[in-house]
C-1-tetrahydrofolate synthase, cytoplasmic (Coemansia brasiliensis), 944 residues
Amino acid sequence: MSDSSTAVRLDGKVVSEQVRRELANTVSEFKNKHPAFAPKLVAIQVGTRSDSSVYIRQKSKACNEIGILFEHIQLPSDIQQSELDKHLDKINNDPLVHGIIVQLPVPDHLNTKHIVHSICPEKDVDGFHAENIGHLSKRATEPFFHSCTPLGCIELLKRYNISVAGKNAVVVGRSDIVGSPIAMMLTNLDATVTLCHSKTKDIEAKVRNADILVVAIGKLEFIKADWVKQGAVVIDVGMNAKDDPSKKAGYRWVGDVEAAAKQRAAYMTPVPGGVGPMTVAMLLSNVVTSAIRHFEASSIVSIVPNPLTLQDPVPSDIAIASAQTPKLISQLAGELNLAHAEFEPYGKYTAKVTLDVLDRLQNNSNGHYVVVTGISPTPLGEGKSTVTIGLTQALYAHLKRPAFACVRQPSQGPTFGIKGGAAGGGYSQVTPMTSMNLHLTGDIHAITAANNLVAAAVDARLFHESTQTDMQLFNRLCPKKKGERKFADIMLRRLQNLGISKTNPDDLTPEEISRFVRLDIDQIMWRRVLDTNDRFLREITIGEAATERGMVRKTGFDISVASEIMAVLALTTSLPDMRERLGRMVVALSKKGEPITCDDIGITGALTVLMKDAINPTLMQTLEGSPVFVHAGPFANIAHGNSSIVADRIALKLVGAPAGEPVTLENAGYVVTEAGFGADIGFEKFVNIKCRASGLVPDAAVIVATIRALKMHGGGPDVVPGKPLAEEYTRENLGLLEKGFANLRRHIENVSKVGLQAVVAINAFSTDTEAELELVRRLAREAGAYDAVPTNLWAKGGAGATELAEAVVRCCSESKQNSKFHVLYDHNLPIKSKIETIAKEFYRAGSVSFSKEAERKIEEFTRNGWDKMPVCMAKTQYSFSADPALKGAPEGFDLPIRDIRASLGAGFVYPLCGAMQTLPGLPTRPCFYDIDVDSETGDVLGLF
Ligand code: NAP
């Protein structure tokens, strides 16, 4: 309290230093707990005004002192508004920036109001944005930030324990950044506020009545000392220069209130040293608040389930999907803390997510990684996709854990053909399933375009080389433009491969020109693709038109998902890596038997352009609102049949733990990724090809089994699509089941061979009996499974898989603490040894026999240096052996290797253990009979 003669000094210097010390402690404590925490303020200065430069230097110094990163962006004084807007847009969208200020004033040609409102309110640490001011004036809402000077005034009152409630407060001055917000803040603290301005009558009388007086008008000593009420609290915001010859500068700073008022007031701010120092301290406080708020929000994925209304009997997949309105994709992206620049919506419910997320979250730990695989299936499939989706729904909507599913994009071939789509089924689906199963975001179309551009380029090159001399080819490949020849960048790459270091085309010798222009294509290995089951294109003759001058040859089409470009997409880790891989793809052999690559054809850049959007995974959601990445869909036989590495990586970071923090049950979520076919194929390739390439370490493997498939492996009758199931499958038969369990036992053993634990998900059907489910459960546990759990996720969604989800959580938790995961073989081993390891260790073959052709190629690949890659076995999924009829758990058989091929871009060699169909055909009654559009509503009908 004051003594009789003078007011207590509301010392802004002392208080602001205290505030800064406290902020420095807060930042350092938060950093200790969360090493990735890095508050950052960006200040934009337009022009070079010296006073602005001084203020910015002060702010920079203050930030450094307490551990806030500070970036000063200085822009030219003649910058156009649109250019300035671009800068603001960039930092608004930069998730690493928590506060933005534009140092005012700006040059006259710029619009200050527009600038203030171009800073996003969440980063407006000056608190000038209309949204922040507006929220301040509403009692029910809170702004993101209060402007700094008013906040400093209030802080001073708080620090000196001055009560405000019920007092008469008079604020003189009503500017948007000082007077008005102070008045509102005092009102919010329950003072009765009178706001005065230049048109106010008899200010003196109002001031005389003030218990708390705040003056912010910029008029030197406007308030006379004797107006101030005895015992009042006086906050003098004004800063006015008063002539003073005794000072070096010739002036000194005085306030809007006569200094003698301190004889009457109980508390009063000095000028200078009162409100001034508080302003910068409050700016720092706003930045720290913003950074903490942002950190807390962005390190926790929000879980907002979309509840299901279950019906019995379970309606069709499309009826279930239509009854459930998905969340808008912008909402889902917000829940995942994606910055605006990190996702590009494609319509209302899907978006591409850019790989920039990986840069932003590079220091985060990955979440828990779960792969879903299956036993050797029946031709009907055992529900791997449904379990993948349902398990994610259970983790997310029922266990309330952040959870992502990563699945492959379905090919349109089967959608209109025989199998139907791949969005899961029943109450465990990706939605909207119509988009998922049709064009989605066009990735498969991009692959088709890229693949066929290569095909067109190879045939065209063969044609041109056959009809032109070396010099004619050279003149066309490197035409003179304005008297000068230039190599395209990609041509320099070819020259480098040929050992020619010249960069000027005119320096090449005739011999070098010949080597450069002649690819001498002999054997074309590249085929065309399309995403339709068009069996009559399996083998075709091309070049029939007279214009092709008799260059007729046989070739054929594959389904688009069988293109090597799809395998490249699935295994790539970044845009530069994808470009490298596309360039390495071998499209033909030369007359000398040397490989000709896409780099040699000169097409790599163009392919990368066609694929540049496809590299970004597509964000969708499950019926219960959990996020899903749909990306890539490589064939599971001639390729590795797993969804993309980039999708898994992004998802693992999004649900991962903040940098420097160990992954725990509390701070990290789950990524459930699906591996195609049975575990002998899809899971083996997941481990030895995908994880080897990605370096990611799975924590658990879920093996999906059905009673039906196990009975088939026990010797049950054939299961044929379209035909009713035999009685063995619809009645209890424990004997058949126990016999067939051998198949599941072997898959469990295989999972443990690579150091993982298996959780068996029994995808239960209504005809399965309690005794059957219990038998599988017991046998699986005895066989070493971590657990075995019946699920009912087709009929119940996530609610039908909570027990499974709990088992997965436990399994992951144990594995994270003590991971024993490893790949099965060293990729540097000879090709034959790698094949034999897989055949003997995973399939339990007794021997492997290689055809002459396979032997010859293995030698050739080894000579070419292609023997250091993993092996991608092309084998039937219906048996551990190469014979689909050999059910159960056969052993000691011979595995015949008919042929072997190389995918240099994807990065594997693929031995063929039987005939492979690479373009499915349409049956007599394809799915398309049932597919239509409701012409009234535009809804798609009949997709499953
Ligand atoms: P401003 O935008 O110029 O606003 C001045 C306000 O004072 C206006 O509302 C105006 O009323 C009112 N006013 C002017 N003459 C008046 C009079 N004769 N009687 C009653 N009201 C009168 O100024 P500001 O940005 O709010 O700044 C005010 C003062 O605070 C300046 O001295 C400034 O340097 C200082 N300041 C200090 C800090 C700090 O950190 N210490 C920060 C910001 C500002 P009308 O609305 O009717 O025109």
